[in-house]
Fold this protein.
Amino acid sequence: TTTPEKVMVYADFMHRTGAIKAKPASWKDLCHETVHGKPGS
């Protein structure tokens, strides 16, 4: 599927464990513009 699913759950985990320093504000910060119109999470 091209619809991003549970991206923020994974980003929250990565932030909590120190894998990434800055927590993204939205899943759109992590995905390509072509999927921004999809109902992602």
Remarks:
- The mean pLDDT is 91.
